[in-house]
Amino acid sequence: AAILLLFIGGLVANWYMNTSSHATQLAEQYVDYPTSLYQPGTLRTTNPEGLSTDYEQKLDVLWTKVNVAYQKQDYAEGLQIMEELASFQREKDSGLFPYAQGILLAQKGELQAAIVTLQKVQSEYTDEANWKRAMLLLSLPAKRAKALALLRQIAQANVPRSQQAKVILEQLD
């Protein structure tokens, strides 16, 4: 009986390890990071005279620096510049700011912080932030249940990543 229990325990452990590694592989396969976080000049709106304000120019410079650091894969520098940006930017709790910060954290390997940060995104970046969160959660075995719940939510919604979520859920069932 002890040998049989040991054998069954081994099968369960093997199944769990294979399922976990398969889910992690799927997360790595389907997570895709943008090539750029910001296009220079995007935040510049012009006043009636056609000139950018000092505030807009400062934002543009800081966001451009963040993007350069991101493209150089210097995520720590990008996050450091974002701290300066946070003290300067008025709308740091909306769209681009938490999305970019979450991407930088994820790329730096700070997955838990990235997951929390991406959850704050409330803008046109929300669907993509939810996708990144789902992939990060999926890569963490202890968070697999949360990942599956988020993937089911994405699969049922009419969003760009619905089909990919369905494929992942089918492969994990």
Polypeptide structure, described:
With 173 residues, the protein is mostly helical. Helices cover 69% and strands 0% of the residues. It contains 8 helices and no strands. Helix 3 runs antiparallel to helix 4 and helix 6 runs antiparallel to helix 7. The protein is elongated, with a radius of gyration of 20 Å. It starts with a helix and ends with a helix. 29% of the residues are buried.
Question: Overall mean pLDDT score?
Answer: 84
Helix/strand order: HHHHHHHH
Structural class call reads mainly alpha
Which of globular, elongated, flat, extended, rod-shaped describes the shape? elongated
Q: What percent of the residues sit in helical stretches (DSSP H or I)? A: 55-70%
Short description:
The chain is mainly alpha-helical. Helices cover 69% and strands 0% of the residues. The protein is elongated.
Using brief descriptors, characterize the structure shown:
single chain, 173 residues, mainly alpha, 0% strand, elongated
